[in-house]
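#onboarding

Welcome to the new folks! Below is a worked example of what a typical request in this channel looks like: someone posts a single protein sequence, and someone else replies with the predicted structure as tokens. Don't worry about understanding the tokens yet, we'll cover that in week two.

Example request:
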Amino acid sequence: MKGSRDLLLRLYRAALAGADPEAAVRRALALPDVARALVGARSVGLFAAGKAAAGMARGARKVAAARRLIVLPKGHPARGLSRRDVALASHPEPDASSVRAAWRALRFFESFGRGDVILCLVSGGASSLVALPRPGISLVAKRRAVRELARSGASIVAVNRLRTSLSAVKGGRLGRATRARLVTLVLSDVPGDRAAVAGSGPTVRGERGDVVRIVASNRAGLDAAEREARRLGWKVVRVRPRLSGDARAVGARLARAAAKLSRGSVLMAGGETVVAFGARHGRGGRCLELALGAAPGLGGDVVLLAAASDGLDGSSGAAGVLADGGTLERARRIGRDPAAALRQHDTGPFFAAVGGLFVTGPTGSNVGDWVFVARDGGRSRRRPV
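Example response:
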């Protein structure tokens, strides 16, 4: 089983590398339309916002930008960035720091004009980090409305649609504060990889001459993980379409699929499930709920890793969790009730007691979640590295 666990951790790292924001931006800057826009500019500004903003900004360090503004979540590392360029704001819910970041972003965009170009680097999390309610709506009211919708189990698309309707900067409104040309590069965490939805699309304004490109996504990570698994001699089964819907139900479905795996195979899936919280709930996250939902169907030779690409699964304090055929037996021996943990959405303490929490801290990326399930063949199949 240790071999399977090591494989799953290796696949997670490969997936992160495949969707690396710094490398993705460097590649995108070489695209002909992006390069032409930047070379022909009178002056260039660089704006980055989201959980992957630091890495994306590092990927653009060779861009000769006159000014930079990089909005990061509080507590995220800003390695390689000048402190004067960085604004720290609140995530997952906006607060006064998010409003200050939005006003600073508006002034930044207004300072550029016709003939200039602003390189906009947007990733998931920007919705909370750059938040300015539209006139007539208070931040408290906006936060309450978004929180209630998210806790109902609504998709990220629905949540971002509501955020946009209540905002003075989302849905391209930040971009409309300038007459400069915009080049927007997006690290996507949303279904369909729609640039206008990721981070609520603050700079996707639909003007002629603007350039918009998705530079990395959940699928890019899965592609990289698949290459790594095959290189190591494992057979690969990809789950399509993208994961969505109730986390525990998706977990049960993946366990059924895993039961059909041949030995020496790994199942891979990506996307973002949801958890419908009640009025009272404990600590956990969608990846932990998915894994616990899968646990009853996992055989003794099957190991599952469900983990968030940003390193933070809900309020669990972990990126995700490893579960296997012995998870429920270990819970029984120490008197832990898996049904109660799911019912109370208190999966964090459950796995802290039972074992399996996968802790990484913030990864600097954000392209949704990945699930890897391996069925060991009982023999060595790994190639030398």
